[in-house]
Amino acid sequence: MARRHASNLSDKVEINMTPMIDVVFQLMSFFMCTLKVIAPEGDFDIRMPLATAAAAVPDDQQVPPIRVRLAANADGQLAGITMNGSPVTDFAELRRKIVGLVGNDRGPNSLAERTEVEFDCDYGLRYFNVVQAITAVSGTVEDGRIVELVRKIKFTPPKRAAPR
Questions:
Q1: Domain 64-155 class?
Q2: What is the DSSP letter of 59?
Q3: 71: which strand partners?
Q4: Which residues contact 48 (CB under 8 A, 6 or more apart)?
Q5: Minimal CA–CA distance to 44: which of 158, 148, 157, 156?
Q6: What is the DSSP letter of 117?
Q7: What is the C-alpha to C-alpha distance for residues 62 and 36, in angstroms, rounded to an integer?
Q8: What is the pLDDT of residues 80-89, one digit of tens each?
Q9: Residues 6+ away with beta carbon under 8 Å from 147
Q10: Is the pTM of this model over 0.85?
């Protein structure tokens, strides 16, 4: 008895793509409907340090920067705050000192607009403390409106502490 081989191997099997496209559109619509659009967490006008400092002509109206040092202990917790070399007890006092320096005058050429705060943070300091310090110097909310204090904020380059 002779065997018959299928000679119609050239027949193509077609795959129906319609169900796969339907599933893709359902997934897209699901993710579009469940997306929660939120406002950015913090919109700080921060200038990061450049690789090399450019020699620039000093501005006559430029106020010397306020230097805020945030020291950390071995666990990364805040160990101390100093502002221009003098100790500060907490972030509320830091805010009061900033308000005392820049005043309440607001405008395009006010002291608050020209003042710059430079943060020098320990390498191991927890980020939460840095955000609290930025919040303390950048502004407050009074009677439902935002009162800006300092807009120019910069950081010194991070330095690892030498091992002990």
A1: alpha beta
A2: P
A3: 80
A4: 154, 155
A5: 148
A6: E
A7: 42
A8: 999 988 889 8
A9: 106, 139, 140, 141
A10: no
Q: Tell me how far the alpha carbon of residue 157 is from its chain's centroid.
A: 16
Can you read off the two tokens belonging to residue 85? Answer: 């070399």
Give the tens place of pLDDT for each residue, 100-130.
887 765 655 566 677 888 999 888 888 889 8
Beta bridge partners of 155: 119
Residue-wise DSSP of 7-55:
--TTPPPPP--HHHHHHHHHHHHHHHHH------S----EEPPPSSPPP
**Are the C-beta atoms of 154 and 46 separated by less than 8 Å?**
yes
Pairing of strands 145-148, 152-155: unpaired
**Residue 46 pLDDT greater than 80, yes or no:** no
Q: How large is the C-alpha radius of gyration of the chain?
A: 30
Domain boundaries, the chain: 64-155
Please name which of 138, 160, 162 lies closest in space to residue 68, comparing C-alpha atoms. Answer: 138
Token readout for 110 is 């006010």
- The pLDDT-based confidence of 54 (bands split at 50, 70, 90) is low
At residue 126, φ and ψ (nearest 5 deg) are -65, 145
CA angle centred on 82, ends 164 and 156, rounded to 5° = 70
CB contact at 8 A, 137 and 99: no
